[in-house]
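Try it yourself: sequence plus CV1, in.
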Amino acid sequence: AAPGTPSAFRDIFIGRCEDYKLGGINKLADLSELSSKNCSELWELFSVAWLGKEPCDVEPNDYKDFVESASITIPKDMSNFWDGWDIYDTVRSYSREGQRTWTLDYTLIGYLINGFYFCGDGKGGVNTESCPDDGECGFAVGAVDAFWAEASKHFSISAEGLSRVFFNSSRPGGPFQTEESFFSEFELCNLTPEKISLMDIYVLTDVRQSPQHDCDSVSINNLKSILDSKSIPYNCWDNPRDVFHQLCIDYDDHEDCTFLNDDGAVH
Ligand code: CV1
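Structure, out:
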């Protein structure tokens, strides 16, 4: 089991929402579009999907109205997908809080809910004691997972132009996985070929690790063939410089990361 619903969830949600509307959270969000969002109305639409119900008695479709109402325009070329928790920190840093790319968590929909477990008590109220953990109700079922499923689907439908997807090259079982994967089941299959000009696939290996898979591995080739079947063009990059340099910040002494000597000269 996972933690229960925060007792101040409504206050946090509305506080995050009002904060987001001011524009400081995601500096590229469209303020005039945000000004039409009513935060307490959004809470009603969100909470009606799960509050009071049995924790596992929630499906993605229950969040449809909330997701539609909280939807904001994602700038062209900014969508950033990822697959597997072990790459999540890297994507978050790369996105620079929405200034370089947008992950779902920097859209209004994701931002309001990110980081929380929540569920109903089956008796009209909220369970503050404990809620089902990831996957505990089955794939994409239950208050939390059903939310991310619907939100992921919407995020993908909204993507336009260049998109990126990040993988960890040493993820056990391969970087790209189709089984019970939110990326595969709700994002990849919902990309609109007419809107996506290019998918940049990033296969990332942390400094000091050796890559277990690369752009030519079976797992990534499987992703490529799915993109081919959707007629979405792609490039695949093994540890591209932009992300690798970011990873180097924590290993500045490592030989792979010494781009400059101490006197400032290029190495
Ligand atoms: N996404 Br807290 C999917 N699930 C999320 C997200 C999120 N942004 N945030 C959370 N979860 P896994 P994936 C929860 O590593 O690789 C979107 C879910 O409730 O398996 O399958 C992102 O846009 C679920 O229990 O994710 C990203 O592009 C678990 O974390 C993609 O889906 C899923 O973690 C990641 O899909």
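One thing you can check immediately is this: The longest strand covers residues 196-204.
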